[in-house]
Amino acid sequence: MKILKEDLEDEDPAVQIEAAKRIMYIAKALGPQKSRTELVEYLEGYMKSDNDEALVAIGKQMKEVAKVSFKEQLDQLMYLIFVSPVTQYVGGKEHLGSLVPVLEKLAFQEETVVCEA
Question: Quick one: DSSP state of residue 109?
Fold first, then answer.
């Protein structure tokens, strides 16, 4: 988690993008409890970043977890997400609600490319 934070806060946008692409690996390594408490909380705060490309990469990682387009209503998200084998990274379907704050912030980004990730 420490390395992810350092890389996402690096001045080099390329380093931030590569770090964002590793989120699923980090979640798997952290386990469900820490993914919900540490990773999701950190990512929620990171949504204020100016690096749209890193936000797109995070959006793609979150989309992999959710297996749903961010343009769909959040009500559908909770239904569709049950089919994702990646739900284990947050401790199963009963903990998917912990992802909603990050998904909401990604969905409401001003940059279209981020919302469509």
Answer: -
